[in-house]
């Protein structure tokens, strides 16, 4: 299990480290972004197969495929992994966790862009002479540019989802989910839709803060109580 989230002191430490990471980005890390972008942009431009693959993975409609694959992990947990919870209880807990993640992602985005005032365009918006994978399929809606790229909302969602899978199902499925989330967070960096630090600094830090909140003992107890009430009412109406 995700034991790090069972201890309030560890939760606080994780949140502090995540916040320090965001501050460290402002001071040190952003100078690396441009070099990483140009290296990847040149690679994608010179390798046709890679360029076409990155373009496809950045299609707007690919989100449906990605969500379906993520759902398969959760179905494995619900139907194949045994623990003290019934299938209905597992589903209810998952839904409550995911609703919490969506709300907190929105809150963090507002804090960063509105209160913190940090808002920057993606590399392809900054460097107009860069190669854009959308030119490979001009009639398709490919997400390779953004006017507000920090953090990557997709990457935050992926990392939070992976953390929840790890917490619920244990290391075997959890590590597979973490690998999956990192792999599918990469295409937006390759396309220039995000800076590398948008994903591996901003998104990772925010995901850590969100996970430390929703998987902390007080919050888990609230969700546990709410889940039992929902399942109890569902049982009464024979769901």
What key attributes describe this structure?
single chain, 239 residues, mainly alpha, 9 helices, 0% strand, elongated
Largest sheet: none
Helix content: over 70%
Terminal CA distance reads: 29 Å
Shape designation: elongated
Strand content: under 5%
Q: What is the H/E order?
A: HHHHHHHHH
Radius of gyration: 19 Å
* Helix count, DSSP H or I runs of 4 or more residues: 9
* pLDDT < 50 stretches: none
What's the rounded overall pLDDT mean? 84
**Strand tally:** 0
Output the structural class. mainly alpha
Structure, briefly:
The chain is an all-alpha fold and 239 residues long. It has helices at residues 8-46, 48-57, 62-80, 87-115, 123-126, 153-169, 171-191, 196-214, 217-236. The longest helix has 39 residues, at 8-46.
Describe the model.
This protein has 239 residues and is an all-alpha fold. The two termini are 29 Å apart. It has a domain at 3-27 and 65-79 and 86-117 and 151-230. Helix 6 (153-169) runs antiparallel to helix 7. The protein is elongated. The protein contains 9 helices and no strands.
């Amino acid at each position: 299990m995700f034991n790090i989230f069972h201890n309030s002191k560890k939760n606080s430490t994780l949140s502090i480290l995540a916040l320090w990471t965001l501050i460290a980005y402002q001071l040190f890390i952003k100078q690396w972004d441009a070099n990483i972008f140009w290296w990847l942009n040149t690679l994608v431009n010179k390798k046709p197969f890679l360029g076409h693959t990155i373009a496809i993975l950045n299609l707007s409609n690919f989100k449906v495929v990605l969500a379906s694959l993520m759902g398969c992990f959760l179905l494995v947990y619900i139907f194949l992994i045994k623990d003290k919870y019934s299938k209905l209880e597992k589903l209810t807990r998952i839904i409550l966790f995911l609703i919490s993640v969506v709300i907190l992602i929105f809150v963090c985005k507002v804090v960063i862009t509105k209160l913190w005032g940090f808002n920057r365009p993606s590399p392809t918006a900054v460097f107009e002479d860069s190669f854009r994978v959308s030119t490979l399929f001009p009639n398709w809606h490919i997400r390779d540019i953004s006017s507000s790229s920090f953090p990557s909302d997709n990457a935050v969602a992926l990392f939070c989802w992976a953390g929840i899978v790890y917490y619920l199902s244990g290391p075997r499925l959890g590590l597979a989910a973490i690998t999956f989330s990192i792999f599918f967070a990469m295409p937006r960096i390759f396309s220039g839709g995000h800076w590398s630090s948008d994903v591996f600094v901003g998104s990772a830090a925010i995901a850590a803060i969100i996970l430390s909140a929703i998987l902390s003992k007080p919050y888990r107890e609230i969700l546990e109580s709410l889940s039992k009430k929902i399942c109890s009412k569902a049982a009464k109406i024979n769901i």
